[in-house]
Each structure stands twice: as C-alpha cells, then as structure tokens.
Amino acid sequence: MTRVLVVEDDPQLVRALVINLQARRYGVDAAPDGATALRLAAARQPDVVLLDLGLPDMDGVDVIRGLRGWSRVPVLVLSARRASDEKVAALDAGADDYITKPFSMDELLARLRAAVRRTEDTHPAPGTTLVETDEFRIDLVAKRVVRAGRDVRLTPTEWHLLEILVTNPGRLVTQRQLLQEVWGVSQSNKTNYLRVYMAQLRRKLETDPSHPRYLITEPGMGYRFEG
Asked: pLDDT tens digits for 150-161?
C-alpha cells in the first residue's frame, strides 16, 4: 500500500483528501502543522508527502528543508501562493511538484501517481550501470551519486532527470521529452521547472555551475550529458 502524508491545516480539505485517497486504497496520515509533519514523516516513512506551504507553526519551505536533510521522499506542494518566486523557492528547497489551489482532485491524483512512479525502480540501459566522470560517480543500480568521496543527496525528480541524461550520453534530450518523461506533461509552460532542477543538479555536481562541463544546455531545445 502506498502511504501518503497530508500536511494541511484546513480540516475540510484534509477530510476531502483523506476520503479520496483512501477510496483509491492509499494509506493516509495527516498533520496539521510542520512539527507534527516532520515527526510523522520520520515515524511512518511515507511514500509521498502532500504539503501546504501556509502552516500555523512554520513555513512549508522549512518543512521541505527539514525532510531533505534525511529523506528523498517525493514532496508535492499544495498552495494558494501563485507567485513565480514562491514556486521556485519551494522547488529549490527540494519539492518535486507544485499544485496551485484550487485544484481538481483528478489532477492531484495524476500528479501523485507520477511522483510515486518516479521513485519506483527503473531499468537502466543494457550495460549501463556505472557512470564515472573526473568529478563524480553515478551508480544507476544503487541510485547513488558520489562526489569527492561523499554521497550527493538528490530528490527523486533530480535523480530521474539525471538518470535520463546520463543513459543518453552525448545526445540531446529535448525539453518536451524530459517534461513528458518526468512530469507526464509536455506543455512549454513547465520549462521553468526544468531550469530550476537543472540549476540544482549543476550546483550539486559541477565544479563551476555557471560554466557546466557535464550538464549542458542546448538553448531553446533541451539538455545533454557529456561524460
């Protein structure tokens, strides 16, 4: 059973989410504030987190940072905040998706299914299990990245993007392909997601993120990995 942690202080919305999720055979825990959310996440080890940003005790972005200190669990933000900088801040902190309130339950469930799929085991290309560069090593079977002798913490979405690129070395992977594969959408208005996540990957893997050696942008087209 897939377990979902709902972090939301609106009782009516919590009730609606719990009813809809349980009807589809998800296990559900609910937390009304950030402190309870972090405690439940550690105790219950959810498969995905639905997180409101406007919590009574702390900002949801701080909850994301708290989770990312030890977990790669997918985090889907549910928020009435529509400003682009708010969305980027949440994604930058480690969120995997951002859903603006009000939202349709069908869209939410589709995004949730996509987030869960991203964490399931995938099969790397035949013969491709270990990718090594001068700066870092990627183990596609163990889903592990090591740089300078230390494990690099990646969110599920960051990992999925990196996995697609490194299993297609030297090949241009278009924005449309990445959006379709990672988020299940191909709309061009999601390209800002790609920019945010690629910037995060470069900060974590590149010696000089502003002049990347491995994660290359092909302006207006997509990205490629140069080993």
From this structure: 999 999 889 999
